[in-house]
Design a protein that fits this description.
Number of strands: 16
Bound molecules: guanine, fe (iii) ion
Helix content: 25-40%
Radius of gyration: 23 Å
CATH superfamily of the largest domain: Metal-dependent hydrolases
Strand content: 15-25%
Largest sheet: 8 strands, parallel
Number of domains: 2
Strand order of the largest sheet: 6-7-8-9-10-11-12-13
CATH class of the largest domain: Alpha Beta
CATH topology of the largest domain: TIM Barrel
Structural class: alpha/beta
Distance between the termini: 39 Å
CATH architecture of the largest domain: Alpha-Beta Barrel
């Protein structure tokens, strides 16, 4: 039998995705064929019966979605510190630089010293990510190779697409949590890239290494320079923190005599394969530069509210054409749920827009509004949480939406029970469900605002089911 006739799975039902910012695309009665490698082979519209599908795809599993259900792209978390999951939800009363010293470095050091603790923490993290619909994640790990390999192994075996960063830091406020020299740090980074790339996996490989200078304060110029060259030679992605908080920004200015964006740029670390977290202290000229370099931003609004003292200029970054996705920044952000990241991104942007229009009100005259709104809405945020993340990571073309050639990374969401017409989980439809089985934009907005884990039935990554909700 030719491979063309061997299909692993056929889905039939409603597909919802965000092909571009501001657009939510609802397609009913779609037949999606996913091949044995986990990629979408075809998407066809038009009602189908089970008999017809069985006759047409005799060797495939066929899954017909019930009314009230739809497939949505898996979420992408562009910034998460895996070891900090240990103390998620505690200790957010300090400014960034003190918080790192008091909590982050200590937790990371514990993980590095105890492989069993690392495995337990990372296994629990993977479980939480999946129940919240995150299928792709860009991770910060720790300094030691061993724990980062455990992180990569756990993500691979749990079926999550993970980009794993072994931290590079040859300077630290901690005497014990630091690499001994720039050369030792570079050697370790190089080894890690090679080791992860040569990991043998059962099934499709889902993990990749990422070059990860923690941030400018913990990296010497020599280290940053070497990492820039390594990333170029090995064609590896890069991640770091950029212009995040007042104390960090001042620290860099004092120590290096220039802003961190200039430091990264000078060492070849702003590339089309770079994702920089936060960027709250950047303005238009810097967005222009990031756009020019092809560098993406991981927007982490919840963490920003604690550490950043000013909001990220999201709308302006988007208008400059900068690639943007959403991150949770565990544990600087306390929630692992990208739905919370989406909601917070909208809230923050609306407060910014309110401030902007208020500042334009002339006390004695009529209200004047100048310029474009700086807010985003729920639809924009759904794009950022899916396609925006995929574009930022440079995933294969069409990732983060449902098209021919997309990896099948999808969540099966249920809004209501087709037989009783009752809402699922936190959703109530007091007036009943309009139009029988169709999912409207209004219902989707309701899910975005108040939906939760109870609405998530399954999660699929690269055509494989990695999570199913317990009834
Ligand atoms: N900057 C450097 N390290 C960190 C970290 O662990 N969390 C956050 N939010 N910012 C950082
Ligand atoms: Fe962070």
């Amino acid at each position: 039998m030719s491979p063309m006739h061997w299909h692993s799975r056929v889905w039939c039902g409603t597909l919802i995705d965000c092909p571009r910012i501001g657009q939510v695309r609802i397609r009913e009665n779609q037949t999606v064929v996913v091949n044995q490698f986990g990629f979408i082979e075809s998407v066809e519209g038009g009602p189908q019966t089970e008999e017809v599908l069985r006759a047409r795809y005799p060797n495939s599993n066929i899954q017909i979605l019930s009314p009230g259900c739809f497939l949505f792209p898996a979420f992408c978390d562009l910034h998460l510190h895996a070891p900090q999951f240990l103390y998620q939800g505690t200790g957010l009363h300090l400014p960034l630089m003190q918080w790192l010293e008091k909590y982050a470095f200590k937790a990371e050091e514990r993980i590095d010293a105890d492989p069993e603790l690392a495995r337990r923490t990372y296994t629990c993290l993977a479980k939480r990510l999946k129940e919240h619909g995150t299928g792709t994640v860009l991770l910060f790990g720790t300094i030691k190779e061993r724990s980062n390999l455990i992180l990569a192994e756990v993500m691979q075996s749990e079926g999550i697409r993970a980009f794993v960063g072994k931290l590079s830091m040859d300077k630290s406020s901690s005497k014990t949590y630091v690499e001994p020299s720039p050369t030792a740090s570079l050697e370790a980074a190089k080894n890690f890239v090679e080791t992860v790339r040569s990991l043998n996996t059962e099934g499709p490989k889902l993990v990749e290494p990422v070059i990860t200078p923690r941030f400018v304060p913990t990296c010497s110029d020599e280290l940053l320079d070497g990492l820039g060259k390594l990333a170029k030679d090995e064609n590896v992605r890069i991640q770091s923190h950029l212009a995040e908080a007042r104390d960090q920004v001042n620290w860099v200015e004092r120590e290096r005599g220039k802003p961190d964006i200039d430091v990264f740029d000078a060492h070849g670390l702003l590339t089309p394969r770079t994702i920089q977290a936060h960027c709250t202290f950047l303005g238009p000229a810097c967005f222009d530069r990031l756009h020019d370099r092809g560098t993406a931003i991981a927007h982490c609004p919840l963490s920003n509210a604690y550490f950043s003292s000013q909001p990220f200029k999201l709308r302006e970054a988007l208008d400059f054409g900068v690639k943007v996705g959403l991150g949770t920044d565990i544990a600087g952000g306390y929630s692992i749920d990208i739905m919370n990241s989406m909601r917070t991104s909208v809230l923050v942007s609306r407060m910014r827009e309110g401030q902007r229009t208020e500042s334009l009100l002339v006390p004695s005259g009529p209200p004047v509004e100048e310029g474009e709104s700086v807010s985003i809405d729920w639809k924009d945020s759904l794009y950022l949480a899916t396609r925006g993340g995929a574009v930022s990571l440079g995933l294969p073309e069409n990732a983060g939406r449902f098209e021919v050639g997309s990896p099948f990374d999808a969540q099966l969401i249920q809004l209501f029970d087709g037989s009783t017409q009752e809402g699922v989980g936190p959703l109530d439809f007091i007036d009943g469900v309009p139009n029988e089985s169709a999912i409207s934009e209004e219902m989707l907005e309701k899910w975005w605002c108040i939906g939760d884990m109870r609405n998530r039935i399954e999660l699929w990554v690269q055509g494989r089911k990695c999570y199913e909700r317990r009834q």
